[in-house]
Amino acid sequence: RAAAPATVTSNVDRERFLGMVERARQYIIAGDVIQVVLSQRLSRPTAAHPFSIYRALRAVNPSPYMYYLHLGDFQIIGASPEMLVRVEGSEVVTHPIAGTRRRGRTTDEDAALEEELRADEKERAEHLMLVDLARNDIGRVALPGTVRVPQFMEVERYSHVMHLVSHVTGRLRPELSCYDALRACFPAGTVSGAPKIRAMEIIAELEPDRRGPYAGAVGYFDYSGNMDTAITIRTVVLKDGVASVQAGAGIVYDSVPEREYEETMNKAAALLTAIERAEAAEAEMVTGSPGY
User: Fold this and answer.
1) Would you say 95 and 166 are in contact if contact means Cβ atoms under 8 Å apart?
2) What is the pTM of this model?
3) Given this model, what pLDDT does residue 2 score?
4) N or C: which end of the chain has fewer CB within 10 A?
């Protein structure tokens, strides 16, 4: 007999999140910001081994950046779709993601949702603004005249959601390093807002808790001066038997609070499913250790 699913709680209930969106809209109307990304943190107890969750997440939601970090008394388990910034040789690259729809239950529904996403003026305007912000970030460290957008507003699909994605590239100035590129792009506008500093001030005011790893970066630096970093979204933080998942939505002038709330829930769905699958897989084991 399967155990009853664990209760998922949020650090922001639905009504409070809707109020946060409305408050952010007031800041936008007042001219403080153009966009601000607000998030909620979902938590639930779990006895699953953290690496079981990672294995389940690889199956449920394979993504460009998969990572499992064992950091003493907590673990970070992620399937991020979004590059923060990469430096390879003299090329510097970022992949802003903005614009989301849930996946369809059928092929036809999925195609219809893609067309709806591509045609949504709000999503397109938000994406264009964040591509401009990414061009500005890359331009701070790139040689003049080298910033390009080789991919613009393409749809990428993941297990539970689809996104609009662009690529922004530039040629790193020879006197600068990958650390300068990271400094120029961090934090990503797609998880903070625009202008970044004022957006972060509003986030600090409206969100009840510090974000921790969420919306930060995970990646590597090598001895040749190369770097590859992902934004820590679609990520589980596991500590003291509690799994936490944080997901956000970009708030703009014409945001509908209920839709933004549903977007955060859609983004968290794959992670919560992975935790459930890890628990189910371990429950089927008759004897022995998980073997990690």
Assistant:
1) yes
2) 0.91
3) 52
4) N
